[in-house]
What we know:
The chain has about 200 residues and is an alpha/beta fold. Helices cover about 35% and strands about 20% of the residues. It has five helices and seven strands, in the order αβαβααβαββββ. It is elongated.
Amino acid sequence: FVRNPRHLEVLEGIAKLRAGGRKLQIGLMLDVESSCYATEESPRGERNRRFLELCRDAGVASVFIGLESTNDGALIEMQKQVNRDRKSSAADARRALIARYKTAVDAWHRIGAWVDCGYIIGWDADAPGCGARAAVDTLEIGIDVVNFYLIAPLPGATDLKPGSATRPFFGVQPVVVDGEGNHLEGACEGNLCIAD
């Protein structure tokens, strides 16, 4: 929405309708940069604040922000540069991401909107425990509703040889067994199963 050069004009028009008595509520789908500079004393901070004021006046009640991850490595892997705090060192990247996201969410809360977000788990850069970490991080950020999406290989989405498998998801222990249920080791043929 904010990438449209007429987005402010649209919000101003809706705000006028509301001022004239029309009862409207709006939900928007946005990126984090639409509000993450709201506390900054800069031209982009001023643009964020103006946008938020117009959203309030236009009746924006909810926003969906694709946060994607608090793992900088996963953001790099998914080429989601817009979410990254590019000034932080690798060691400080997660804390910087959380602060950036929290600033964005707090800005929406200040105008009375609730925030829904999408968080993706299962990138190569993610490690065991990333789901628990994501839950803790999103609570700290203050998001009202979180949708967790798990990446799983789908036919045609990952280049695989027919009959082969890709990496298992965290906590999944694949095993190959023969027709009698005996575990096979090394390069072998058999039935791919999930162990307890």
